[in-house]
Amino acid sequence: MQAMQPMKDIPPRIFEIWDAPVDIETCGNLITHHKLQCSTCDEKFETEVQFAIHIDKCLQNAERDTHYQIHMHANRLLMFQHRVALFCGASHQDRFLQCGLCKENFENKETIRKHIRICARDNASYGAFIRKTRPLFSNMLSSYEQLGLLFQRYVMDDHIVDIRNRRRSVRLAKADSSPVGRHLFFDEISEHFIEQYRDYVFAICGLIDDAFIRYLKKKESESEAADVIYSLPKKRKRRADGESVDSDSEEDEDDDSEEEIEQPSTSSGRGRKRTTRR
């Protein structure tokens, strides 16, 4: 197992991607703003196809170190948010405040979110939507969590130092009034990223609601919402297709999956937390 080496500076682009708010109205534009970046030569690309062609050669012998991993997961966050936007499309409405199932109109985003969770219960369209988008949201959650873990290796980064100092100041200020101190199992930095991941999970739940509302609107204008490319490691694709596989080799195949672009069935998502790498 590779030992964790202290790192100094988190690349600004990587932190901005991780820190970007989850929003259905902007998730499709993040890839254009930040672009996909090769961890070896730093060349940037605006499309997945160009990026895949490039890394097929440029990353062939790349070392799978921390620098490689944070670029991989940042690129994945961009790609899977972009795929959510592509899959759900856009409505001709100025505001997405009408339920595509019962056609009821609502005053704001929060009220239609609460409604759609009830209205879509046991609905066939919602089941199809979840089957097709589960790999997208699962990969977003996985890469966000992995970036939080990788950031903790950058012990001298200004963000990390600031987080540690702020949390220690708060803890010391509360020490006299609270009998419970810092959690025994985690330091200030670990606690921070655990809390950030928890908040991200809630944000993804809201994104799923918003994406489904747009999915319904797109289906009104098209016979079926367009499928998107999912990039799955070979092993997991075989498992999704019902083939038996040797579990001992899964980690090795996952590590080699960055250079592979595959087109599995969009219903093959298994809801596992880690389904692909990019």
Q: Could you describe the 3D structure shown?
A:
This is C2H2-type domain-containing protein. Residues 243-262 have a biased composition (Acidic residues). Residues 235-278 are annotated as: Disordered. The chain is mainly α. It has one domain (12-175, 182-226). It is built from ten helices and two strands; from the N terminus they run ααββαααααααα. It has helices at 12-19, 30-34, 48-58, 66-88, 109-119, 124-151, 158-174, 188-221, 234-240, 250-255; strands at 36-37, 44-45. Strands 1-2 form a two-stranded antiparallel sheet. Strand 1 and strand 2 form a beta hairpin. Helix 4 runs parallel beside helix 8 (188-221). The radius of gyration is 21 Å and the shape is flat. Mean pLDDT is 78; it is low at 229-278.
In short:
Residues 243-262 have a biased composition (Acidic residues). This protein has 278 residues and is mostly helical. The chain has ten helices and two strands.
Properties at a glance:
C2H2-type domain-containing protein; single chain; flat; disordered C terminus; mainly alpha; 1% strand; two-stranded antiparallel sheet; 278 residues
